[in-house]
Amino acid sequence: MATLAGTLYCVDRLQHVYEYTEGTWNDIANPDLRPYRINDMRVVNGELFGIGNDQMIFLWKANTWVPITEEKKSLYLYDIADWGANGHIISGEAGFLAILKDRALHRIELPTNADITCVLPLSAERVLVTGWDATAMFVGLNEVVSIDAGARELNFLNAVRWDSKVLIAAEDEILVLKGDTVETFATERAALLSTIGERLWRQGADGIAYLDPGKEWVPMPLSADV
User: Fold this and answer.
1) Residue 226: is its pLDDT beyond 90?
2) Which of 165, 100, 190, 109 is nearest to 142 (CA)?
3) Neighbours of 159 (CB within 10 A)
4) Beta strands at 24-27 and 38-44: parallel, antiparallel or unpaired
């Protein structure tokens, strides 16, 4: 799911997009893109992107998906972010990292075959890359620097900026970036971190909770009629 201009969107396995309005999900009439599949959506600079499992990237325009890459290889994509003048940076399975320019993906070689689940630009020169098997690296256009994860073996799932910190969801804990190492920030389980304003949200096997700066975690009970 993704939020664009105050509206919540989600996508199903057939690339159909749904818009949440007036308390219900409404199916937007859009064409079937099979055999392609969109795994997730990201909002980047006010535009809604779909990332797929065929090394394909789509842009949502006028209620339809417009392909912006030409590659059609069997490769699952995880994340996309704006890296300023460098272009959009894309991550995927099996150590895949690339910059998107002119409808082509220009690969950056990494010293790992782990799935790269998140890209978080920190500056015009450096991106934080995280992934499976406790993978964390600083990536520049001409260098890759590994981050010391200690004896950790679990997957690093995504990273966010919050309260002047860079935090990483690491399944059984939340980590904080300290130079070229990571330390435990919280022992709560986290499969996904996100921020809204000054508030940090975590999603894990024990549910959802939020944290305000200087406060304690507040769990959010959820109920669903399924």
Assistant:
1) no
2) 109
3) 24
4) unpaired
Taking CA atoms, 98 is separated from 18, 52, 159, 223, in Å, by 29, 14, 18, 39
User: pTM value?
Assistant: 0.90
Contact 86, 72 (CB under 8 A): no
The Cα–Cα gap between 181 and 200 comes to 22
- DSSP one-letter code for 173: S
**Statement: residue 32 has pLDDT above 90:** no
Residue 204, token pair as written in the block: 């894990």
Asked whether the bond before 31 is cis by omega within 30 degrees of 0, the reply is no
In tens, the pLDDT along 114-129 reads: 999 999 999 999 999 9
Give the separation between CA 20 and CA 225, rounded to whole angstroms: 17
- Distance CA(204)–CA(201), nearest Å, equals 10
pLDDT given for residue 14 in this prediction: 73
175 burial (CB, 10 Å; 0-12 / 13-18 / 19+) is buried
Determine whether 144 is exposed, middle or buried from the number of CB atoms within 10 Å of its CB (0-12, 13-18, 19+): middle
Contacts of 185 (CB under 8 A, 6+ apart): 165, 167, 173, 174, 175, 176
